Amino acid sequence: MAGLLPKFGPFGPVPPPPLDEFAIKETRPRLAGRRAGGYDLVERMEYLYVRVVKARDLKWTAAFDPFAEVKLGGYSCATRHIEKSTSPEWNDVFAFSRERIQASFLDVVVRGKGFAKDDVVGQLRFDLCDAPVRVPPDSALAPQWYHVHNKKGERGGEVMLAVWFGTQADECFPLAVHADAPLAVDAKLAAHIRCKQYTVPRLWYVRVNVIEARDVVFADKARVGEVFVRTKIAAQVYKTKTCVSRLPVPSYGWNEDHLFVAAEPFEDHLVLSVEDRVKVDKEEVIGYVHIPFKEFERRWDTRPIRPRWFNLVRPEGAPKIDKFSAKICVRICLEGGYRVLSEPVHYLSDVRPAARELWHKRPPIGLLELGIHNAFGLTSMRTRDGRGSCDAYCVAKYGVKWFRTQTVIDSLAPRFHQQCYWDVHDHCTVLTVAVFHNCQIGDKGGLVTGDPVKDVLLGKVRIRLSTLETGRIYTHAYPLVTLHGGGIKKMGELQLAVRFSSTSTLGLLQTYAQPHLPPMHYHHPLSIVHQETLRREAVSLIAHRLGRMDPPLRRECVEHLCEAYSHRWSMRRSKAHFFRLMAALAPMFAALRWSVDVCHWRNPATTVAVHVIYAMLVCCPNLIVPTFFMYKFVVGLWNYRRRPRHPWHVDTRVSHAEMAHKDELEEEFDDFPTSRPLEVVRMRYDRLRSLGARIQEMVGDVAAHAERARCAMTWRDPRATAMYLLACLFLAVTTFLAPFQAVALLTGFYVMRHPALRQRLPDVPANFFRRLPCKVDCLL
């Protein structure tokens, strides 16, 4: 699919795209063997590596800034220059794809910055036939000293370098500059396009229980202040309610809990400031205190934390107060028993708590291996030399280890062939792989200058580990689908290979009996709203930390991978959830329809058989429970023939994206607060009102039925209640005197009686129930 899919065209509804376009496709790529350094899920890609370490005793007529240039056929690349040195150290690595090599000699030239084209300090030619082949786990190749000669044949010094043929499993691959890239790659650009493994910092919840403050005085001694406490860690700020002291001794109490998110290593301080609300829009700081994290207690259970008193300090520039001795009492601790959620609960990739002391309760139960092969059919994101181009890279997220592939420049079918591994502590988790277009690369190479540009998401793939068979390799091409205000669009396909290996079958089975989250989430649960607020803070903190690494992982990548905006209102998502619920309840509705058909004798043979089975179960009630579970067993065994053969993927039909209206999508991707014109906002508001009216009617009907059921016993309608009580007395005596089997048989046969014995009017119990009163009469 090359363009957008609006819901309506100029001549009526546009038909949805064929399902195969967004379907997962099984592929059979050529995989490398175990011998390729453990890279057995991806194809083996061979490279020529050139590691230029350093030089010594370089000779030139004057001081110069040396650098080394590597030439191979039509490709050339250079190290960074070292100012005014005759013994420079570079330690740069260059990689050339072996399938693109068309020369048999490698030239290494040492020259200076600003030299003429023909001026060289020395050069060396290396025959590629002499280059050794190295495949990990072979030991690293030791660099050697080589003499370089100028054009007169004189020695210009020595260069230490190493040349070898290797694969993408080589440890130098993440640091190598791909010299055969279509665009010029300098040192700054190379730092932004190389592959990298990121470690997400360990996150903790910080609990601050503000108890009370004493000896709080004001510059105006006659003032009775409205005092509150502001707690702050970095950009996270909370306030207690205001309190007025009515005691002779100025004392203020709150006993409020504030939860923050902090990341190791702890760099910030907790700031507690006691403030006075002078006016509605004016607040004055009475005193404050900075508390470093090293003074916090750590706990991972429900043991109580002892309160501590801290002396407050007057802020600079505030009016002086004689004998200022205000202090505040708080309980502060680092909560290690919780799992700090940075992603929605449905997409969790790690469920271990923050405290390492509890990790022994969730030992590794398996190994997850991911092979990122290649992407193909990518949509053009920019134009270079009059043709479409894309600079794509992948990011794989699972647990605390995130993996980013190198950026393949100027290719609509990039080949990555990278493999990564994770220890699995709970297989009911989700692996997320996203493909982005690198917008930091200029049209002619180098980094873009000016205002920062966000990288563009091309698509995401989620794989739930519990849906994978252990030991099996799943190799599929997943569709890359994006959704924006204009509609749904397919951006290409991504080929992945996934394998989940179990190291402990018993531990794997035991996880089904364990709680999904750590025990503290059940001993002291957090509200959904509070948990979502803390999740947004956790995502912001992770984005800040990963953005400081080299190369940085951009904030928009972290937000897309962690689903930072999944809490926003979406009409499309609401419809998708509703239809998911209807699909999940479809078997129950089908059973109800089948029961109605049986009661109305639509199929006489089936109805007679149900009568016989019902009579057998009533006469032998001990067979009811075994029959139910045997039925479930037989149905499950029958469904084994049609079990899923591949993992789930992003489904546009389940997401209700194909039939979503354009305005609904624009509303979903609108900023918060909205920036749309007043007419658009009014139209959306009216639409929500109409939707709310329908929901209101449904809730009102349910409430009316519930109130009628209660009014049968409350004597609101005396005659109806008296009749109901007499009927209950009659049924109690009848069921006591008559055998249970006889009552059950008569009741069942009456419900399933022949249509000739039925009437179209409602039954007596239904008529009685509909006539009971409800509180609709009390509404305005």
Give a topology summary:
Elements: E1 8-9, E2 12-13, E3 25-26, E4 46-56, E5 66-72, E6 75-78, E7 89-97, E8 105-112, E9 122-127, E10 144-149, E11 155-167, E12 177-178, H1 187-193, E13 196-199, E14 203-214, E15 226-233, E16 236-239, E17 243-244, E18 251-263, E19 269-279, E20 282-292, E21 297-299, E22 308-311, E23 327-335, E24 366-376, E25 382-384, E26 387-389, E27 392-398, E28 401-404, E29 415-424, E30 430-437, E31 456-464, E32 473-484, E33 487-502, H2 505-510, H3 520-523, H4 528-546, H5 555-561, H6 571-584, H7 586-599, H8 604-619, H9 624-639, H10 662-668, H11 678-711, H12 718-737, H13 740-751, H14 764-770
Parallel strand pairs: 7-12, 21-23
Antiparallel strand pairs: 1-2, 3-32, 4-7, 4-11, 5-6, 5-8, 8-9, 10-11, 13-28, 14-18, 14-23, 15-16, 15-17, 15-19, 19-20, 22-23, 24-29, 24-33, 25-26, 27-28, 27-30, 30-31, 32-33
Helix pairs in contact: 4-5, 8-13
